[in-house]
Design goal:
Elements (H helix, E strand, L loop, with lengths): L11 H6 L3 E3 L8 H11 L4 E3 L2 E3 L5 H18 L2 E3 L3 H16 L6 H8 L3 H11 L4 H19 L4 H7 L5 H12 L3 H6 L2
Antiparallel strand pairs: 1-4, 2-3
Helix pairs in contact: 2-3
């Protein structure tokens, strides 16, 4: 028996391809040829040089190839099921990301890169669970924050737009009207 633990960043494509799924059983067997390949790539043979033993550092490319070989062997025999409990945690991660980054020009692609998921998968999770597109979620959050600033401060609307992540006053006015049903200046006038 052997247990391998390594960071998902080393096998990003595999992590993305299996996002939202989990194996029914995580145990599997390696072929003798794959076992020999792994020993060759991951357990370097020491060499003696002038009263010193030298342990060569494996090539990072060889290590990555070895890890992907293990992933391929696992995937060939694994039975996958949808990870139901993962969606709640993932949605929390998405919302946290929006809360922390809404002032920046974030996209579904930047979210996918940050969370190491395929953006198509994240889009589907948002659609199925929150019934919203990522851009709409970000704009709703930006508008909620803008409403707070409009009603609770005397900041100029242009500053509020920029502080809330809008790239221009025009997009701020358009999105704000679309989401709240009022323009920013009309909302400020109601105070």
């Amino acid at each position: 028996n052997f247990l391998a633990v390594f960071a998902g960043g080393h096998i990003g494509k595999f992590v993305s391809a299996t996002a939202g799924k989990e194996p029914v059983d995580a145990r599997f067997s390696l072929s003798p040829s794959l076992q020999a390949y792994l020993r060759e790539q991951m357990v370097p043979t020491p060499t003696a040089q002038k009263d010193q033993i030298h342990l060569p550092t494996p090539s990072p490319f060889a290590l990555k190839a070895a890890l992907y070989a293990v992933c391929a062997a696992f995937d060939a025999t694994a039975h996958w099921q949808r990870k139901e409990s993962d969606n709640k945690a993932l949605i929390f991660q998405i919302i946290s990301y929006v809360e922390e980054n809404y002032t920046d020009p974030i996209t579904l692609h930047t979210l996918a890169d940050t969370l190491s998921y395929e953006y198509h998968y994240l889009s589907r999770v948002l659609r199925e669970n929150l019934h919203v597109r990522f851009r709409t979620l970000v704009n709703q959050y930006r508008c909620e924050r803008a409403k707070e600033l409009i009603t609770e401060t005397d900041l100029p609307l242009s500053d509020i737009a920029m502080n809330c992540g809008f790239q221009s006053i025009r997009s701020f006015n358009r999105v704000f009207l679309e989401i709240t049903g009022a323009t920013p200046s009309a909302m400020r006038g109601k105070q």
